[in-house]
Design a protein that fits this description.
There is one protein chain. The protein is mainly alpha-helical. It contains 17 helices and no strands. α6 packs across α8, α7 runs antiparallel to α8 and α16 packs across α17.
């Protein structure tokens, strides 16, 4: 008999292959954000380590994972000859079902509930402006960026198919040129404009292309397995060492908490290379990053990201000193409970709609493929 909490301990396969480690990485990204915001309030989730400044780098890991997974799905569909108008429609409504139900509930909570938060005073018009991506404050900046990327991704897929002609080196040259152009133009910073962070998404899509082409050459992939594992460990260690408080020890001078907040391309390359190496690494290393507690945080990461700010701003109920480990552990436990409930009651029902429609479409396509030509024509 399945556990009633089984939805928190299993991962849904990305199209084509089960990559449980990526759920673990989403969990790590969430923990980086929570640890950073907690440290700003004196709540150190990692005992004795000030994690302030890692929040944005955690969001950038989210961006790399999101762009990788979506491009990976489109490459898989294209390889199967399934990338047609129906798939574009499914992509659109699944993205809406993925983001908007919980986003609407969060905005309504900030607008209507008597909770402390860092959103400006909300009105019905400002809620509408958030939903139409005309405004973004506090935690919502990353939601606006992600939704804008969803509008750009189809163009990137079509460029890969029709301009790069599905060739790895042509796709690599296009991404390199796009990232270099972004660096050259150096657009003015804007918290919720896609142009500010576009290099991160470019690199994430390229990682999907590289992973796809490595899959076409299994002998190469096998030879690269051990070096990729070593590189993944080194890159992850570097990413953690770049936590400003730790980097201060490495440099021997005080590094401000916002030292890396504008290092978009640096972190695009760092996280992109890490994800690619991890997916090529030995199974034991992937299993380590797919550790069950990390996967639980990964499954509820969207809920956890949105609700953790409200939780941190409303901690008056805790009986512990803010700088104690007990306070941090209690806050994390409560966050998991809130996020799990949010995922089960708000996110999961809408995600299941998208998945059930996908399974129905796959079953219909399989039936058409198995049917005699005359039956297949009549079914259409």
């Amino acid at each position: 008999m399945a556990s009633p909490l089984g939805f928190l301990t299993r991962t849904f396969p990305s199209v084509g292959a089960h990559m449980a480690a990526l759920d673990g990485l989403r969990g790590i990204a969430l923990l980086l954000v929570v640890a950073s915001h907690g440290s700003h309030m004196g709540l150190h989730i990692v005992p004795g380590v000030n994690m302030a400044g890692t929040g944005k780098t955690g969001v950038w890991l989210f961006f790399v994972l999101s762009s990788f997974l979506l491009m990976h799905q489109f490459l898989h569909l294209d390889a199967r000859g399934r990338l047609d108008g129906r798939e574009w429609w499914r992509y659109a409504y699944r993205r809406v079902l993925r983001i908007y139900p919980l986003y609407i509930v969060f905005l309504l909570a900030c607008w209507l509930l008597p909770l402390q938060h860092r959103m400006p005073p909300m009105s019905a018009q400002e809620v509408f402006d958030h939903l139409t991506l005309q405004r973004a404050y506090w935690l919502t900046w990353s939601i606006a960026v992600e939704l804008k990327y969803y509008l750009v991704l189809p163009l990137m897929v079509l460029l890969y198919i029709h301009v790069a002609r599905r060739r790895f080196w042509a796709a690599t040259a296009m991404v390199a040129a796009a990232v270099a152009t972004r660096e050259w133009l150096d657009p003015p910073f804007h918290a919720y404009y896609l142009r500010t962070y576009i290099a991160i998404f470019f690199v994430g899509t390229w990682v999907a292309v590289a992973r796809h082409h490595l899959g076409l050459h299994p002998a190469w992939a096998e030879r690269l397995r051990l070096p990729a594992g070593v590189a993944a460990c080194a890159l992850f260690a570097l990413a953690i060492a770049m936590t400003p408080s730790l980097w201060s020890l490495v440099q021997g001078v005080e590094v401000p908490f916002n030292r890396w907040h504008r290092s978009y391309t640096l972190y695009a390359l760092l996280w992109g290379a890490f994800v690619l190496c991890l997916l090529q690494a030995p199974a034991r290393l992937q299993a380590a990053f797919g550790w069950l507690p990390l996967r639980v945080f990964g499954v509820v990461s969207f809920s956890g990201y949105l609700w953790h700010g409200l939780l941190l701003d409303n901690l008056q109920w805790m009986p512990f000193a803010m700088d104690s480990y007990a306070a941090a552990a209690t806050m994390l436990a409560v966050l998991v409970l809130i996020s799990a409930a949010s995922y089960a009651l708000i996110e999961r029902p809408f995600l299941r709609i998208g998945r059930s429609r996908r399974r129905s479409a796959d079953a219909a396509d399989a039936a058409d493929a198995a049917a005699p030509p005359a039956a297949a024509q009549s079914s259409g």
